Amino acid sequence: MKRWCWGLLLLLVMSVAQAATGDKTAAVSGAADHDIPAWTLRTDVPDGWTQDCCMYAKAIGVNLVLYKGEWTGEPDRVMVLNVWPSKLSSLEAEMQEDRHHYLDRDPSGKASVFAVDNKSMTCRGVLYEGTDHKDDVVVFCDPGLITGIRLSWSMALAHDDAQKRDLLALFRQVAEQSLYLKQPAAKTGAAKTQH
């Protein structure tokens, strides 16, 4: 076999192997609904992580999950995207409602700022540290009033997780790379929205 044929065969095998490990970009879409235009949200998927919008995510009532390894059904170390129609007056109001809800459940829990820098939309993050030794990190984003939606990324992990720093860095990257795209026409399969 000629050298160029081997090269072509190698490229084909590499591309099939890469496809089997999952795409590097995750995307989820929602159909137009009353005053909300059709939309797509995209982000980068960390190396070795799997994206799911249509089986596990749908089963737990969210738009998208990113996880590493096998799906266990446990919330630890799972990045969760949730999209809902904006109802509250501001992103700050969304965060305050979430903070009150969290601290009502765990009055001795702590909440601190989780810094994020998304260049495409306004995002703010919070890191909750629970008395149950579980941490929850949440990033709320507002792609703008005209979109009619707000979104959040969240992830739970053990407070003493040995990989906590690396997991939070990957989570920050996913939130910061999230991009809102308005769709010119309705897409098939509307994404479920909730809060």
Structure description:
This protein has four helices and ten strands; from the N terminus they run H-E-E-E-H-E-E-H-E-E-E-E-H-E. 26% of the residues lie in helices and 33% in strands. The protein is an alpha+beta fold and 195 residues long. A hairpin with a 6-residue loop joins strand 8 and strand 9 (149-158). It has a single domain (23-182), classed as Protein Transport Mog1p, Chain A, CATH 3.40.1000.10. It has a seven-stranded antiparallel beta sheet, with helices on both faces. The chain has a three-stranded antiparallel beta sheet with strand order 1-2-10, with helices on one face.
Summarize the structure.
By secondary structure, the chain is α+β, with helices and mostly antiparallel strands.
Helicity, as a percent range: 25-40%
* Sequence stretches where pLDDT stays below 50 over 5 or more residues: 1-21, 186-195
Number of helices: 4
Strand order of the largest sheet: 3-4-5-9-8-7-6
The total tally of domains equals 1
- Structure class: alpha+beta
Q: What is the number of beta strands?
A: 10
Tell me what portion of residues adopts beta-strand conformation.
25-35%
Shape: globular
Order of helices and strands: HEEEHEEHEEEEHE
List keywords for this structure.
single chain, 195 residues, alpha+beta, Protein Transport Mog1p, Chain A, 7-stranded antiparallel beta sheet, 3-stranded antiparallel beta sheet, globular, disordered N terminus
Q: How is the secondary structure organized here?
A:
Layout: H1 3-21, E1 25-30, E2 39-44, E3 49-52, H2 56-59, E4 64-68, E5 79-85, H3 91-105, E6 110-114, E7 122-129, E8 134-142, E9 149-158, H4 164-176, E10 179-182
Antiparallel strand pairs: 1-2, 2-10, 3-4, 4-5, 5-9, 6-7, 7-8, 8-9
